[in-house]
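Morning!

This is the sequence you dropped in the shared folder:
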Amino acid sequence: MTVAGLFGSLPPRADRTHFSITDLASEFGVTARALRFYEDEGLIAPERRGTARIYSHRDRARLAWILRGKRVGFSLAEIREMIDLYDIGDGRSTQRNVTIARCRARIEALTAQKRDIDDAIAELDEFVSLLEKPDQKD
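The structure's back. Tokens below.
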């Protein structure tokens, strides 16, 4: 299973052997600056040809993982740890287990936040209803 297969479906691009910064920025809806930032953070590692960055299928898969991880609230450090586990040579077992545990913890945190938000909305609805009632004299 590929990184993309583990953490999102990213269809392979058999029609390409590499990608430019413009290709990936366009495909994923990010800026070239964002891609350079992820490179500076060591999350992706494009080949350099002069001043041009040449991205591999691996970089593309890692970028998909990074963006999905960010969307669901993982820190860059957590994302780095999960994608770096791809290469430890155990058939991606550790990566899968760590990712599952992190995802379950994130689900629990988001569920708790959702409950808190629902409670706050209910409280505000009740308060507004109370305030909208006409004054009642004794």
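Headline: Confidence is low (pLDDT under 50) at residues 1-7.

More detail when I'm at my desk.
O.
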